[in-house]
Amino acid sequence: MIIPWQELDGETLTNLIEHFVLQEGTEYGEQDVPLGDKVDAVRAQLQQDKAVIVYSELHESVNIVVKDRFSEPS
């Protein structure tokens, strides 16, 4: 299920994005990118409708995914 980012409290959204960018596998290469820059980049992708926040009832988890890679089950 897609959770509209606009419906989340600002602090909740920031915490969610920070948790996402701090996960393993979200490295930005050899450059050290500040956390704030990573958060801003993900927030911009959400605002530009390039990424979505997805809640999985099965796994009871929330994740941020690139919109092109997400398809809701019919």
Quick summary of this structure?
With 74 residues, this protein is α+β, with helices and mostly antiparallel strands.
What this model shows, in words?
35% of the residues lie in helices and 19% in strands. It has two helices and three strands; from the N terminus they run βααββ. It has helices spanning 10-22, 35-47; strands at residues 2-3, 51-56, 61-66. α1 (10-22) packs across α2 (35-47). The N and C termini lie close together (11 Å). The model has no long low-confidence stretch (mean pLDDT 88).
Topology:
Blueprint: E1 2-3, H1 10-22, H2 35-47, E2 51-56, E3 61-66
Antiparallel strand pairs: 1-2, 2-3
**Oligomerization status of the protein chains:** single chain
Element-level helix/strand string: EHHEE
Taking Cα atoms only, what radius of gyration do you get, to the nearest Å? Answer: 13 Å
Percentage of residues in strands: 15-25%
Average of per-residue pLDDT values = 88
**DSSP strand count:** 3
Report the span from N to C terminus.
11 Å
Q: What structural class do you assign from the helix and strand content?
A: alpha+beta
Q: Characterize the main sheet.
A: 3 strands, antiparallel
Unreliable runs: none
Percent in helix: 25-40%
Outline type: globular
The helix tally amounts to 2
Strands in their spatial order, largest beta sheet: 1-2-3
